[in-house]
Amino acid sequence: MRILIVVHGYPPTHSSGAERRAERMAQWFVNNNHYVEVCTVESLSSPNFSIESREQNGVTVHRLSYQIQNDLNRLVNFNDYPQVDRALQEILERGNFDLIHIISGYLLGSQAVRVAQIMGIPTAITLTEFWFMCSRLNLIQSNGTLCNGPDSYVKCVRCLMEEQRRYRLPALLAPKIMDAVWPVLHRTASKPIRDALERRDNVLRKTLESVDLVICPSKYLIHKFSEFGFRTDNFRFIRQGLAHPGGAGNIDRPENKVLSLGYIGQIKEHKGVDLLIDAVIPLLANGEPIELEIWGSETESPEYVARLKAQSARFSAHIRWQGKYTGHKVWDVLAQTDVLVVPSRWYENSPNVILEAYKMGVPVIATNLGGMSELVEHEKSGLLFRFEDSKDLRFQIERLLHEPGLLNRLRAGVPQVKTIDEEMQEIMTEYQRVIRQANSQPIHHLPKAVGVDQPSTAPSES
Question: How far is CA 202 from CA 79, 129, 197, in A?
Fold first, then answer.
């Protein structure tokens, strides 16, 4: 089979969850004698559109660089960028692909679906977050609070307006005043934003409903999209599997005198690392035997990192900032970790790091929210703490120190984890189904998005 993977970023330049998922899939296809290429975004800060194509670990990777204005036009431009359409058409024509598989849908999703349908190629999307219902991707509002979903344009418009400096500071410093003036602002200043949001919603809803296959790694994600009116008859629940480099998990760990906690992931506010710091510091101040290792890039949110480092400096011997990690490094880190902590403030979906911890026999403490609470069974494979409650997180950590046998009981309750071979066999079965279905039916095209020319000429490469 010949597959094109489309994703908004790809290692080594970009290596968060969706990007690593795309890489794992690409490597599986290569290892199992399928032909695969990857189309990805390398940069959104290049003034000139360019494509760089080169082989990486047996996979041809096409990296696009271009620029989208950092204003409300991005709501439209993320979906209406003609040069991206043309680049995708050129790649598809040259590769003679059987199917396009889009990871996430952020940045490239709607355009990839549009071009594929024009060319009569079946499409699949793996959802990793909420891009198709939230322009901020993760249902975190501009003031940092969790959003339950897009239940009104009024709420979404306000959220986007408060991203702008002129509204952001008043919203943070005087929220009650903003509540009072918002009805006036909504009548006088919000129409362009609302129009852009309506266009975005129209394009992305039609895109997702027209895709042949939507893969969701959590049941929670399907529930959330259904809750807000998305048709989900083309959705399939397939939990992701892991490509482990070798060696069995469930390491026989002795009871240590010091409890080793680990955090692995993005160090950003919506990931809740500050909640973990707030929970651990009082325990260390009381002399509890704890070590915390924090793994993740420190450059994505430098002010946030600097604040947390300053807060934890007094306990630098026990709270260690380890910096960025590569995909394979995670196994070495988890082998030295007693408990993984996932204190996220957003719903998550099916966090790969939780499954990686389970693969190594490591229980997890996580927020009782979204896809995390679907994966972590409280009192069996880990512990759940209340959303935004660092005191409850501290209590759950403290239990591991003082409840005899609790840690070993949680280790024994860690579930088996699906392998990537098992996951991909499920996906391949779905591929075959949609390809057969596509070959037996006439082609249905999405309406062309406003302002987008159909692909005609290929962009120049650089």
Answer: 11, 19, 8
pLDDT tens-digit readout, 46-93: 999 999 999 999 999 999 999 887 666 667 667 778 899 999 999 999
How is the chain split into domains, by residue range?
Answer: 2-137+197-241+420-439, 259-412
pTM of this prediction?
Answer: 0.86
Arch. (CATH architecture) of 259-412: 3-Layer(aba) Sandwich (3.40)
Q: What is the 3-state secondary structure (H, E, C) of 19-33?
A: HHHHHHHHHHHHHCC
CA 222 to each of CA 110, 155, 216, 384: distance values in angstroms, whole numbers, following the listed order: 19, 22, 7, 22
CA distance 316 to 320: 6
Same fold, 2-137+197-241+420-439 and 259-412: yes
Q: Tell me the per-residue pLDDT of 399-431, one tens digit each, with 9 for 90 and over.
A: 999 999 999 999 999 999 999 999 999 999 999
Return the half-sphere exposure (C-beta side, CA atoms, 13 A cut-off) of residue 248.
Answer: 4
Helix (H, G, I), strand (E, B) or coil at 339: strand
Which ranges of 264-344 would DSSP assign to H, the alpha helix? Answer: 273-285, 302-312, 329-335
- For residue 169, what pLDDT is reported? 63
2-137+197-241+420-439 CATH fold: Rossmann fold (3.40.50)
Cβ neighbors of 325 (< 8 A, separation 6 or more) are 264, 295, 296, 333
CA 142 to chain centre: 18
Spatial separation of the C-alpha atoms in residues 46 and 44, rounded to whole Å: 6
Q: Which of 337, 366, 345, 362 is nearest to 262 (CA)?
A: 337
Structure tokens that stand for 318 in this block: 């026990």
| Tokens read off for 378 | 């409280």
DSSP 256-274: -SSEEEEEES--SGGGTHH
CB atoms within 10 A of CB 328: 10
Tally helices (H) and strands (E) across the chain. Answer: 17, 14
